[in-house]
Structures are given as C-alpha cells and as structure tokens.
Design goal:
The protein is α/β, with parallel strands linked by helices and 265 residues long. The chain has seven helices and ten strands. The chain has one domain (6-13, 72-256): Alpha/Beta hydrolase fold, catalytic domain (Rossmann fold, 3-Layer(aba) Sandwich). Helices cover 35% and strands 17% of the residues. GO terms for molecular function: hydrolase activity.
C-alpha cells in the first residue's frame, strides 16, 4: 500500500450527523453490554473448571473451514480504546478468526485506563508470554497510540511489525484537556507521551490510520504524517468498527503477503 495515499469523504448534512451520533452512542452501549456478558460467561466457565482461551491458533496455512493459504495468516493483536474491555472488539475478532488468523486479545488491559506506556508494557508482556513476534496490530482509538509505542519503544524486540489504527487521535483529541478523568485528559496534543509519539516518524510508513468523516469525540485528528490515511463516510467514533468499508480495509491490510506473524521457538 502506498504510504502517501489518502482517501477522503465529504461531510454529511447536519441531520445525518445528529442521527449518526445517536447511533454511535447506541453501538457503544450495545458492545459494552455484550462485553460484560461475555466476561461474566467466561468467569462462570473458569469457576466450573473450564479453561477458556482468548487466543485461537489455526494450523499453519489452514483457515477455518479447511481452506489453505499460500502463506501463513498474520497473527493479529486487537487493542481496544480507553474504557473498552477486550470483548468490545469481539465482532472483529470472530471475523478474523473465521478467516484463519490467530487473534490475540489482551484482557490484562482491563478497561484500558492505565497510561499509554503502562498499557504498552502489558501488551508486550502478553506477546512475550505467548512467544509471538512480528505481529500485526488492529487497534481502536487509544489502542492505536499503544500500538505505535509498541512499534517504537519495543522495536528491538520486534513484537509488532505493522498496525491498522481506527479512530486514533494521533494529532490529539479536540477537547481532551477539559475531560473529567485523567485517562481522557492524556490525549491532548501537549501531553508528553503524545508529543513523544508524534516525533517518532519512522514507524508511520507501517501504519494505516482510518477515521470517520465526523468523529464527535476526537474530531478529524486521525491523520498521521507518512502513513496511509483513510477517511470513511461514517459518523461516529465507535460504529466505524462495524462499517463494511473498514472491514474491507482490514482484510486488504492483512492479505499483504509480507505481513505474516512469526512465533518464537
């Protein structure tokens, strides 16, 4: 993919924006409830002696349903946004598993309220424990900032090769400094971590940044210099995760034959 390529979309009318914001909030609520139910079910299964897995590893070169690939499917790490549990991205996880990818969730993040460096350390620890290197990150919102830190601060370990970030405030979130909680205030452009990530340009060519034409939470701040930047005709910060345009971009990104994950040992 051409790192300089940028796809844009025209802003929708005001009425469509208002309706989109409502649908976006509803999508977030539905996913939070579903994630809580999944977590509760997993907890009951563990108490009953079952050992549920949050990572699935198909046989090398074999997709679900028995079809084969000429190259092994990429190992995908899903990193959700702030206040989003691992189950928030379950629809995407199931879709990718159905296409033969090994998908790694990171329940250690909880509701992802820790600092970006602490969150990156948690993800790095999970990848080390699983013996995974050269993984591909698919991230939402804050998850993209965590992913970029993994690509830069942990570059010597080679844990993460590339990333597709969705609704990530690479340029900072518009009203972040006025947010009511510390995790949300950490996204303003003047924050030291945000500044440090912005200065590291080397990794940008290995990132695809996808944003909505109207994002009520972060504005149009998903652009990343040197990356492939795509703007989809979607209103919302959350429901873009279910947009057919995004799903097509994810599949194209992971179909790149140079993006297969590697397992140590």
């Amino acid at each position: 993919m051409d790192a300089a390529m940028r796809t844009t979309a025209m802003p929708p009318p005001a009425l469509a924006v208002a309706g989109g914001v409502v649908l976006d909030a509803w999508y977030a609520l539905v996913r939070q409830v579903a994630a809580l139910r999944a977590e509760s079910t997993a907890g009951r299964a563990t108490a009953a002696g079952s050992t549920g897995e949050l990572t699935i590893a198909p046989a090398p070169g074999t997709a679900a349903g028995g079809s084969t690939h000429t190259t092994a499917p990429a190992v995908v790490v899903l990193i959700p946004g702030v206040y989003e549990p691992a189950g928030f991205m379950d629809p995407l996880r199931r879709r990718l598993e159905g296409r033969g990818h090994r998908v790694i969730a990171v329940p250690e993040l909880g509701y992802n309220r820790r600092t970006i460096p602490d969150s990156a350390a948690a993800v790095a620890g999970r990848l080390r424990a699983l013996g995974v290197r050269g993984a591909v990150v698919v991230a939402h919102s804050k998850g993209g900032l965590i992913g970029k830190l993994l690509m830069t601060a942990y570059a010597d370990e080679g844990l993460v090769r590339r990333m597709l970030a969705v609704s990530t405030p690479f340029e900072g979130a518009r009203y972040s400094r006025y947010a009511p909680t510390r995790p949300l205030r950490s996204f303003h452009a003047g924050h030291p971590v945000m500044g440090s990530l912005a200065k590291n340009l080397e990794a940008n060519a290995r990132i695809v940044s996808v944003g909505a034409v109207v994002d009520p939470l972060i504005g149009r701040a998903t652009r990343l210099d040197g990356a492939r930047n795509v703007v989809l005709p979607v209103v919302g910060h959350f429901r873009i995760l279910a947009d057919p345009g995004l799903l097509a971009i994810v599949e194209d990104f992971l179909a790149d034959p140079g993006e297969t994950g590697e397992q140590a040992g």
